[in-house]
Each structure stands twice: as structure tokens, then as C-alpha cells.
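Apologies for my clumsy wording, but are you able to produce some protein sequence, whichever is easiest, and the C-alpha cells describing how it folds?
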Amino acid sequence: MDSTIETTITAPGVILKTRKDWPTWFAMLRLHCSEKGIWEQVNPDLPDVASINATEPEYPDFPKHPGDPPTPLSEEDDNAYNQSKIKYDALKLNYDIESKHHTEKVNRYKVLAA
């Protein structure tokens, strides 16, 4: 998934040639971003926060069966495998939830930035 979002903001009549051009440009940037509802994401005066496009959650590895090819297991190995499977199921559920939230955040950001 490409997480790069490019948006062009045009400010008619503002060309950044010297330092005196920056206040006008910045005021127009702030106004434009406020109208789009994204000023909180670009406001340089706010403390740094995690990027909206943080890395996607990592899919958990399925536990390897102790008998490969599958062979009858001792009760201890069978219990250990079942515990690994329970842990995997919990990690998979967490992945599914985090992945859904990640996709929703990215899509909401794309809509606001458009």
C-alpha cells in the first residue's frame, strides 16, 4: 500500500522569493488547511505526533506444528501447541482490528487532504 499523499496548494500571487513573502504564504496555508479540517496535522507549533500513515500492523506468524509432518504428540507437546494456537488467535484478532483502524485512518486522511 502506498502511503504517500501529495496535495498541491496554490496561493495565487504568493511567490516565495524573500523572507517577507513567508507570512502571507503561511497565513494562506493556515486558512486553506483550516477549511479542509487538517490544520492539526500540519500545524508546526504542535508537538510531534505519530504519523497518520504509520506502518501497517504486521500479520502474526502461525505457530509451527511440533510434529512435521503431523505425528501423534505427547500430551505436553499437544498442550503447548494448543496454547500457541490460542495466542495466535488473539494476535490475529488484534491484527484484524488494528488493520481495520489503520485503513480507516488513512482513508479519512485522504478524504480530508483531497
